[in-house]
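Running this now, will post back.
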Amino acid sequence: MFSRLIAFVRKELAYLNELSADERKLLSASVLFGLAQPMINVFSNTYLWRQSGNAVVLAVFSIGFYAGLCVGFILNGLGLRRFKPTTLFFLGCVLQGAVPVLLVYAGASADELALPLGLMLGVSGGFFWGNRNLLTSTVTSDTDRFKYISLDTAFGLGAAIVSPLIIGWFLVFGEKTGLYATQSAYEVTAVFGFLLLALGGYSVARIKRKFEKLKGIFLDKRSSAWQKMRLLDFVNGFTDGFERVIPLLILLLFLGKEDSIGVVQSAASILSFLGIYAIGKKAKHKDHARIIGLWTVVTSVGKAIFAILYSSAGALIFHGFNGLVLSFRSASMSAVMFEAVDREPGTGVSKRYRYIMDREFVLDIGRVLGLLAFIGLFTYSASFTVRYGLLLSIGTQLLMVILVKVVTKLVPHEDMSEVEMGR
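Update: finished.
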């Protein structure tokens, strides 16, 4: 067993040598982001929960985040007319790390902070994700993009295995032992996350590649194939938004404090790492609908078991099933999007950014509407939403399977019949 693990590590490290220097810098930033991400996402929400105990506050925070993403993408697009994407990526990292610091040091109530800090996090996320997607699309080549995405996902998940566990236990250890206050632990963690993100931004800022200046940020015309891609992204965004708060609520209500959440998040990342590595060795372009279909089936089983048991055991089973296929959705959807962009008319950075931003707008509109649907349902019946809400999104997941199949047929890929996703 130990010899197999050593062989696996050596194989992965050998593959790293096949990446270009720019790809390795981008990959290192992804790992650092994976280490800092729990503080940005999960534990910012648990901090708000500690203050308010209100799921609607968490949803409002997410609405602010997704609305801010749209603003951030526009501002980033305007910035790309004068600055390199690597510089703006660094700015996005620094700003994104600063928001949790402001959250835990501000001292205001959660109700007052949720929307404005969500907006600030979204704007900074627009700089981060706009340039990360643009750099991934530009730095990687068409023939090895699947390999890079799966490796990027696997390394990011590896970081996500360690980080939630350490952060979760650190946040409650002082409270349990009396050595330090939980507030102090949140402050230390927020500052450490800021430093990790700043380091990741610096790594990408060292990329020496030349980039053309952005000439436009909005699409003038959209092909029939891209309109179908937009419909897929809208459904994907709505599903993501509606499900945004419920899994965290399940953890908070059935498993308790940050240490339990950290353990579950780390375990889910381990399962997700194993899942993406297994599927990444065999999946090809034509398999994306099957991958999304597998994600739908596995998560649906987990949702049904939780709804039936409605207990701590059910919560663990749900998160176990969800964790196993967590990365399938993001990896396949990213790959389908990049392939769709490659097949649209036009060339260069301007073309890529226009399509990436258009896609982000559609995604975030879907997410905000999904969150509003969650708020409406939760306000009507909180207990029904927590227990059965996730079952309602199975319908949109099935629609995603159909749309992925349609889009991949519209986006023929000459190379992927011979190129494996992953190793």
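The chain has 17 helices and no strands. More later if anyone needs it.
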